[in-house]
Amino acid sequence: MPTDHGDALVELVGLLAGCSAGPGRLALVSGGLACGKTELLQRFQRHAAASGALLLTATGSPAEQPLQAGVIDQLFHGAGLPPEIADRVSHLITPIAATVNDSGADVRGIHHSYVRPVHELCQILLELSRERPVVLCVDDVQFADSSSLQFILYLRRRMRAGRVVVVLAEWQQPQPTLPLFHAELTRRPHHRIRLAPLSVCGIAELLRDRVPDPEALAPAWHAVSGGNPMLVRALAEDRDAGHETGPDQVGPAFKRAVLECLHRWEAGLLEVARAIAVLGEERTPVLLGRLAGTTPEAVEQAVDVLTAAGLLLDGRFRHPGVGAAILDSTPGTERVRLRARAAELLYQRGAAAAVVADHLVAADRIASGWPVAVLRIAAEQALMGDDVAAAVRYLEPALPVVEPDERLGITSVLVRALWRVNPAAAVVHMDPLHEAMWAGELRGRDAMTVVHHALWIGDEATAVRALAVLDQNPGMLDAQSAAELRIVCQWFHGLDQATAVAADVVADADPWVAAAQAIGTFWTAEFHPDAIASAEHILRSCRLGDMSLEVVLTALLILVHSGHPDRAERWCDRLTAEAVRGGAVTWQAILEVVRADIDLRRGEVVVAAARAETALALLPHQGWGLSIGYPLAVLMEANTALGRHRVIADVMRLRVPDAMFATAAGLRYLHARGNGNLAVGRVLAAISDFQNCGTRMREWHVDLPVLAPWRCGLAQANLTLGRTEAARELISEQMLLPAGDRRTRGAALRVLAAAGEPAERPALLREAVRHLRRAGDRVELARALSDLGEALDTAGEHAEARELSRIAVAETKASFSGALPIPVDWGDGDAGDGRSVLSDSELRVAELAAKGHTNREISGILYITVSTVEQHLTRVYRKLGMRSRADLPHRLSPRTGAAPRAFEARG
Questions:
Q1: Which candidate, 536, 532, 530, places its Cα nearest to that of 514?
Q2: 678, 705, 738 — which closes off a domain?
Q3: Are 696 and 563 in the same domain?
Q4: How is 65-125 classified by DSSP, letter by letter?
Q5: Which tens digit of pLDDT belongs to each residue from 16-25?
Q6: Are residues 813 and 683 in the same domain?
Q7: Region Disordered: which residues (predicted)?
Q8: Is residue 644 part of a domain?
């Protein structure tokens, strides 16, 4: 029965107390690796010395085992004997030490050359025991030399005549390392103490003086250490040094303690531990033995030792940090050899391809033949399971050593995998695919990959050439690939030939192709009535890697722009979760932009800006290819609504590919940049952007307000220049176009009202409010409400105007919900007569006062005190030379067509 450390010490102390009244006593202390045997002996030795006993101590060592009388010499020379006895002992030890060690000698018999010296040494001890008790302690007795073992046995047979306590500590193994010594030693009565690992209470007691709340830590530390005292102390040392211990991490002291435990035992133990660390869950006694170069029986014994030491539990390491420490300390060449050998052994036993592939990759030593075949199978399985990172990890090391006839297949899989992580990284592997494409050797998705990648990065020449090959060889594409390619080409509008060729290829009318054709009408004025249902069907059937990203993106945008943003949001969340699980970073980034776009259309501009920034951070700039315009457009539009002019300027300075402007994303970018330029006062630059956007949309026959309502922006710019008639014509033209939505129509009505006669404005703005309220865009709704309030105020309906102004401010605050604190600048103070001399806060107070709000109402709207309102108004009156607030409407000229001040907050 294993003994607790405290109980073991009590037992040893009892033996010492009892030996003074009776015959000598012997205790055999055994325990697992680093179980605390040495510490127990040291605590007992301190007690023995304090009690007045003569203390003789020694420690066996593998390095000194060949030296005869090594342990005997330690026992006597460290005991502090009187000089005359010490000299006598020295003369007796010398002839024993001079003998040649005979490892095959029977330890039960005394070598003839030192029978007399051993006898006299025992007599000396027995004589000394008459004066006071003698305590003889040997730690790691399994490493004692043969002559010292014979001395211990000789003393054992004669110690009944003296007050002697012999305590021997040894490793606990399934079979004794010294069977003959054990047999002779245990023939007579003795005490056997088998040390148990520390219990939870034992750990708490050990930590009593080291940590403030040992009872709280003890359970977790017991789970990590298995009660190994050395590991517990290491955990305490790491804690003192500020290193955290968690489910996946341990500190440096713990790692050192693990290695010290292993190096204390026989060399074979370390080899088995390394094999366990390498094989992990695939371990079996046979595999471990082959990898460690030993037998299954020896492996099972080593596992027992490691389990008793608290390093293993049910055959696996108690904590991942144990295996990591073992592997990290293994020399690099040996680690490579073990990994490569493990891969070979597992392959021979038919292990899963991914398991073998992980070892091959870790070994970083791939040869042609079966290793390449295993890596390819593992990569394809990983892609089927949406583990993109694993697929790339398997394929990249295989490519340099693959046979020529396999290179194309592996390259194709690698390109598709890399594209889902970072499209820019796939560029270096495209040459073999290009050569096969020109030779007409690619089929289906591989052929489409060449066109898709060229379009994504803006390589128009390659895209046109590849589409020409497809035109000449219609059998290269199946129906689904051809249908997908058409939508991909529609996303990249600049290649008219691409769209035409893809349209010719799609001749199959199966359900999938019909659905793809239906959602493809999103890019035309003839929006198919089945497009929404088809979009849902495609999203429901979508799995990452089975479908082009542009197809999924088009389906989502159909839901967004057809008045179903909530459904699009749910699909985004589901697909994003799948992309995160599979490591498909490209998909994550695009889906995050769609979510940002949805937030933008709801007027949740702070969230939209944050999501757009997150999307841009997921992929490197070049990884976005020509699609970089989409996240940048959303980011600019959100920050334009927030009035963050510095951010807008920073985004505009980012370099974008020239070819981007020939894509749908480029249209969004031009429109967003036009609005940004307009917001910062660069009216002519804004007009140029809107006109450029409109020209491209008309030329490509995608003049869809839902995609980029450029006429609204251009009309707003014309209003700023006082060109009211031009603005009215642009909005009237847009109102006649199909494929609009409530949000776009509401925004157009607001601009039309600004361009119309004062008497017409309330009706137009009420209709705009009705559309925008149903569309759910708080930003545009707040603008329309603010404009309606001003129009009603001008018409003399002051009460309703004040109420609408209050609602507009509430909608503004709602659109800013979730934001970090942003310094709000209520205007630039540079428009209209008298405005330039006022500060931003003074101007905002003055505007509200001019609309008839009381000081208390202004206080509530702006979240400032009534006293602050009064101070601002006093300064306004002084600066503008006025006597009362009745003069304010005349001194503050109206800002025709301008966005409400509440949306000019800068970050």
A1: 530
A2: 738
A3: no
A4: TTSTTHHHHHHHHTS---HHHHHHHHHHHHHHHTSPP-TTS-TTSPPGGGHHHHHHHHHHH
A5: 988 876 688 9
A6: no
A7: 888-907
A8: yes
787/751 Cα distance (integer angstroms): 10
Contact 383, 546 (CB under 8 A): no
Q: Between 332-348 and 285-292, two packed helices, what is the crossing angle to 10 degrees?
A: 140
For 385-400, the DSSP string reads: TT-HHHHHHHHHHHGG
- The secondary structure of 653-692, three-state, reads HCCCCHHHHHCHHHHHHHHHHHHHHHHCCCHHHHHHHHHH
Residue-wise burial string across 459-484, b where 16 or more C-beta atoms lie within 10 A, e elsewhere:
bbebbebbbebbeeeeebbbbbbbbb
Q: Crossing angle for the helix pair 267-279 and 285-292, nearest 10 degrees?
A: 120
Residue with tokens 């309906």: 797
Q: Where does residue 529 rank: exposed (0-12), middle (13-18), buried (19+ CB within 10 A)?
A: exposed
Q: Are strands 312-313 and 316-317 parallel, antiparallel or unpaired?
A: antiparallel
Query: pLDDT tens-digit profile of 220-270?
Result: 999 999 999 899 999 999 988 888 888 888 899 999 999 998 887 777 899
CB neighbours (10 Å) of residue 711? 25
Q: At residue 578, what are phi and psi to the nearest 5 degrees?
A: -65, -40
Q: Which letter does DSSP use for residue 544 in this model?
A: B
Q: Which of 130, 162, 196 marks a domain boundary? A: 196
Which regions of the chain are under pLDDT 50?
103-106, 108-109, 494, 497-499, 501-503, 505-508, 818-833, 894-907
My answer on whether 24 and 146 are in the same domain is yes
CA–CA distance, 470 with 464 (Å, rounded to integer): 10
Name the residue type at position 611. R
Q: Is residue 226 part of a domain?
A: no
Question: Measured between alpha carbons, how far is 599 from 779 in angstroms, rounded to an integer?
Answer: 11
- Residue 357 lies inside a defined structural domain of this protein: no
Do 32 and 134 share a structural domain? yes
Token pair, residue 757, equals: 């006669």
- The reply to whether 647 and 597 lie within a common domain is no
Measured distance CA(44)–CA(137) in Å, rounded: 9
For 12-43, the DSSP string reads: HHHHHHHHTTSS-EEEEEEESTTSSHHHHHHH
Question: Rounded to the nearest 10 degrees, what angle do helices 431-438 and 404-421 cross at?
Answer: 120
Would you state the pLDDT for residue 825? Answer: 33
In the chain, how many domains are there?
A: 6
Kind of pairing between the strands at 164-171 and 312-313: unpaired
- Same domain? For 149 and 33 the reply is yes
* Alpha carbon of residue 815 to chain centroid: 31
Report which residue type is found at 690: F
Do 673 and 719 reside in the same domain of the chain? yes
| DSSP SS3 for 56 | strand
Residue 799 class from Cβ within 10 Å (0-12 exposed, 13-18 middle, 19+ buried)? exposed
3-class SS string, 788-840: HHHHHHHCCCHHHHHHHHHHHHHHHHHHCCCCCCCCCCCCCCCCCCCHHHCCH
The mean pLDDT of the chain is 84
Does 855 lie in the same domain as 721?
no
* 607: Cα separation from own chain's centroid: 22
Cα-trace Rg, the chain: 42
Q: Does a structural domain hold residue 112?
A: yes
Question: Which residues span the domain enclosing 556?
Answer: 534-619
Helices vs strands, H then E, count in the chain: 45, 7
CATH code (residue 79): 3.40.50.300
Indicate which CATH number applies to the domain containing 678: 1.25.40
Element (H, E) at 312: strand 312-313
